[in-house]
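Tokens for chain A. Residues wanted.
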């Protein structure tokens, strides 16, 4: 059910919101998505739009355009509680150990979920300064996992986040992680402005 979002930027580049179930999603992934999406009804949670840009640049975890082959995910944000929850299904192009997900693919989703959390709940634009991951169990290729991230503390420009990854039924912890995100200074933001999308489409 990806939704075309008009982009004022330039005509040949479409911006498509992929953070919706599609036919490549398993019933488990869809079920968890609908549970998380139900949390948006009373406004506590918001679904973070996951845009595929079909132009030159693409968000790394949205760059495998064959449906179901890469990262299939949706991220939900609770701004008041400074938390993010993500349901992610790992496609067959993400293999590391045979039939299991590459550790770098899991790290990508941890960086993205914590980065999206920081982006939505904190002031200013943050970059990852440090990311530490403990891999507790291998993640089966094709399986669905849940990522739970939160902001633990802020000190000046530093934001400390933690996250853990569970199996779809929540019974098994697959990973846990901590990170440090640093808010860009005014001067750094000025320099970064030329790289930011001109319209409101993020991710
Ligand atoms: C408009 C909408 C468009 C986009 C809408 C997006 C929507 C949402 C999608 C997000 C999805 C992707 C999210 C992925 C997020 C990435 O993947 S970001 C890419 C990977 N990260 C990088 O490339 C960052 C590279 N590093 C840097 O640029 C610089 O080191 C930093 C991080 C900006 C910090 O440098 P700096 O500004 O010079 O600051 P610096 O004084 O060095 O450090 C500040 C403080 O942090 C501490 N610190 C810095 N590094 C460390 C460290 N490694 N360990 C411990 N302490 C540290 C310093 O000690 C210092 O502490 P205090 O002295 O203040 O106590």
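Reply:
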């Amino acid at each position: 059910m990806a939704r075309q979002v008009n982009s004022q930027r330039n005509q040949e580049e479409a911006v498509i919101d992929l953070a919706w179930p599609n036919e490549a999603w398993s019933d488990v992934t869809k079920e968890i998505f609908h549970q998380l999406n139900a949390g948006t009804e009373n406004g506590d949670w918001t679904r973070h739009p996951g845009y595929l840009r079909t132009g030159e640049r693409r968000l790394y975890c949205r760059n495998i355009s064959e449906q179901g082959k890469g990262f299939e995910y949706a991220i939900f944000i609770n701004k008041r509680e400074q938390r993010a929850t993500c349901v992610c299904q790992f496609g067959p192009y993400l293999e590391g150990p045979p039939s299991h997900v590459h550790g770098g693919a899991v790290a990508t989703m941890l960086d993205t979920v914590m980065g999206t959390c920081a982006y939505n709940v904190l002031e200013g634009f943050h970059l990852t300064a440090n990311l530490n991951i403990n891999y507790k169990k291998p993640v089966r290729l094709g399986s669905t996992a849940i990522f739970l991230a939160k902001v633990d503390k802020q000190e000046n420009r530093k934001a400390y986040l933690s996250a853990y990854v569970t199996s779809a039924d929540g019974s098994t912890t697959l990973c846990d992680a901590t990170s440090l995100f640093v808010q860009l200074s005014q001067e750094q933001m000025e320099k970064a402005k030329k790289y930011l999308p001109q319209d409101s489409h993020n991710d």
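Residues 111-112, 115-116, 119, 127-130, 156-158, 180, 182, 185, 188, 196-197, 202-203 surround Palmitoyl-CoA (CB under 6 Å). The two ends are 18 Å apart (CA to CA).
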